[in-house]
Amino acid sequence: MTERHSALEERSPAPPPRNREISRGIPEIPVKLGNLPPLNAIANQVLTAVGRPSINYRTLASIMECDPAFAADALLIANSALFGFTSRIQELRHALAVLGLDRIKALAVTVALRSFMGKGGPQLRQCWRHSAACAMVARMVSPIFGITSDTAYTLGLLHDIGRLGLLKSYPAEYSPVLGGLFEDVEQVLSAERALLRVDHGVAGAWLVSNWSFPSTFAQACEHHHAPLAQDDPELLQVVKVSCRIAEAAGFAAVRYSPEPAYDEVIRSLPPHISAEAFPPAQDLSATVESQLKSFG
Ligand SMILES: [Fe+2]
Ligand SMILES: [Fe+2]
């Protein structure tokens, strides 16, 4: 697969109606999930504007500067280790010009998700650390799948948005799931369905569809815990692999017994995903940890 995808370029035409059925067999999305605030309006405007052929950096900066908190956060993240500048950038306009359009989309989603998360407790932070770690791994493995690194990163950040959504909308009900000890992910998903009628994959697919992300993103959110298949779309493969690697590198959102072993996870990947692409566990977790620090 040599064609490079930039899935954020093909955004879904219209959001689905609230409480729409995403998966067969799931009667409806729990009502409080539908009451969550939309993804940041400025991020939405940025994602739409970036898709226009005539867009320029000055217009993008003006959109972001409409919300000083968003602009400040965008500058902070642009200067973090995640976006890799060696010297500090003082001006948002300068940052945008250096980043380029694909990375600006990733930046807008990062800022929006941080604000969606708000000042959560330790469980929300644990979910966020897993998603951010998954995003960093996804960026690293994206060339294997012919996906642009920024699209892979963005999807990695969003793939478990269902967890954040369920925790924010049903904290009392969902908290025991995140605090539990599980044998495998199927047990986690069953516990979610028993408590809230949906698992976090379906909840996430519903949220990203409602926020007008491409249908490929919803598909990846919904099915990221299904076993890896060689005919899976590339985006889905990236997220399945990155989520498992992030868990095995010490960034799981829930606790497993036994804990997933990094080397075993790498060895279990199909032959088209070279084990050479992955650094030793300690190196990966040190890199992710240092990037998380700059992430805030
Ligand atoms: Fe997940
Ligand atoms: Fe995950």
* Approximate strand percentage: under 5%
Number of strands: 2
What proportion of the residues is helical, as a percent range?
A: 55-70%
Instruction: Count up the domains.
Output: 2
CATH architecture of the largest domain: Orthogonal Bundle
Strand order of the largest sheet: 1-2
* Main sheet makeup: 2 strands, parallel
Characteristic key phrases:
60% helix, 296 residues, 16 helices, Hypothetical protein af1432, 2 domains, globular, disordered N terminus, mainly alpha, 2 strands, binds fe (ii) ion, single chain, two-stranded parallel ribbon
Topology:
Layout lengths: L30 H4 L6 H10 L6 H9 L2 H11 L13 H8 L1 H17 L4 H24 L3 H10 L2 H9 L1 H9 L1 E2 L2 H12 L3 H11 L4 H9 L10 H15 L6 E2 L5 H6 L13 H15 L1
Parallel strand pairs: 1-2
Helix pairs in contact: 2-6, 3-5, 4-5, 4-6, 6-8, 7-8, 7-9, 7-14, 7-16, 9-10, 9-12, 12-13, 13-14
The chain binds fe (ii) ion (FE2) (2 copies).
